[in-house]
Each structure stands twice: as structure tokens, then as C-alpha cells.
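A student in our group prepared the protein record below, which I am reviewing. This is what I was given:
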Amino acid sequence: MGSNFRFLFFIIFSFFFRNVFSAPDLSGIWQLTRGIPNISERFYSQRELTKEGHRRIDIFNIFEDDLNPLCIPSGVGRLWDEPDTVWRVDQYEDRVEIHYEMFDVHRIIKLNQNGHPLEFTPSAKNLDDILMPTIGHSIGWYDGDTLIIETLGFTESIVSTEARGGGSLEVSVSDTGAVRSNKSMWVPQSEAMRSIERIYRDSDFMAVDILYFDPITMLAPQEVRYRYSPSSFNFSIYGCISEEVGH
């Protein structure tokens, strides 16, 4: 009886050790890489939108429709695109938690789930426990040295209103002449969008590669790649104060 118990304990401990302690170390505080030769902080593939995707971009007014002034990211890409704040990953046996300094957003991603639930509950919230529906519902798993996150259950929005670089000179201009963003970089998201994030160490950097799939707004997947450097700043409270949209 005693030997059987010890054998069972050994099996359980071995399973725990293999599944928890073999996970890649993703610790650290990270920010977008800047000013390093031959290292690009972010890359966007050329967007290919459906007619519906173009229509949604045409009618989107960033000065009236953007949720960022309400301290809600336009989409998960908006969190990764933020150039002036940091983020970190906390790893546990059954989940990972990604903390973004921007808007004090906190994503809780359960590991090794048997698919998504039938009804989606957003996986992200802020310090006041306000859910972030534009970020969707996420599950994750490890594949070797990579954390993979699959997300469904998005709400209609823009993947990232911070997307910049490349494209035409089509911009969003307010009545006062203020320019907010390069509109040619925006990619709309529908409730049918699915994203796959791959997070892994790339030498001294942290890599985040994302594929967005949306049959309603995209003709082809949108690919985005980021490289982050260790930050010299401590993680702090953002303290976002909601503003009235349109002002």
C-alpha cells in the first residue's frame, strides 16, 4: 500500500514538474525596442480588406468612435503597439497573466483548456474590474519555448488605432487640423475575428508575433511582429482618467 502511494505521488509530481517547470521563462519588464541597428520594433504585413472592411474604415471617426479616451483599448493590437509604456507576464500552473501598464489592463489567460466556452467573457479587465470586450476571450498553451494565445469573442472595433508606419498618407484629421494616426494602417475587427499570439524569447529580446483572421473584414490574415527590449523603468500604475469621446 505504501509503495503504491509513493509511486502515485511520484507520477503526479513528475507530471507537475514537467508541465510547470518546463514552461519557458517569459519574466521581465518589456518595452518596444527603439534605436537598435537591424532590429525593427514592429512590422505590419500589407493589409488586404474586404469591401466590408473598407466600409468600416471609411465610416470610423477616430475622434468620435475611438474607445481609447474612455480608457478602453481599441483592440488587443493597441496594447502591444503602445510605445511609451511597459508590460510583463506572470506565469502560473494553470494560467498566465499579462499586465500592461497602458490603461492598467490585466489579461488572465487560462492554459490547456478544452476549447473556448460557448458564451465569451472578456479575459481582460482594469484595476476597477471593468471588463474589456474589445480584447476578446483568450486561452493559451505552451509549444516548446513559445506561449501561444488564441483569442475569440471580440467586439467590433479597430485592431489598433496606434498602428503606424508605411502605407499612404491617408490620415485621420480633426476639425482643428490635428492628425491622430495613419488611417491606411488601420485594420477593422468584427465579432468573427480570431487571433493567434506567439510570445517567445528572441536572443535578448521578447518577440510577439500575431496573426489576425477575420472573414468579414479581411481577405487575408494580417500579420504583425514586435520586438521588445528589457525596460529600465519599473512597472507603475497608469491611472487612466476617462474622457468624453469626441472632445
Observations:
- The chain has a mean pLDDT of 85.
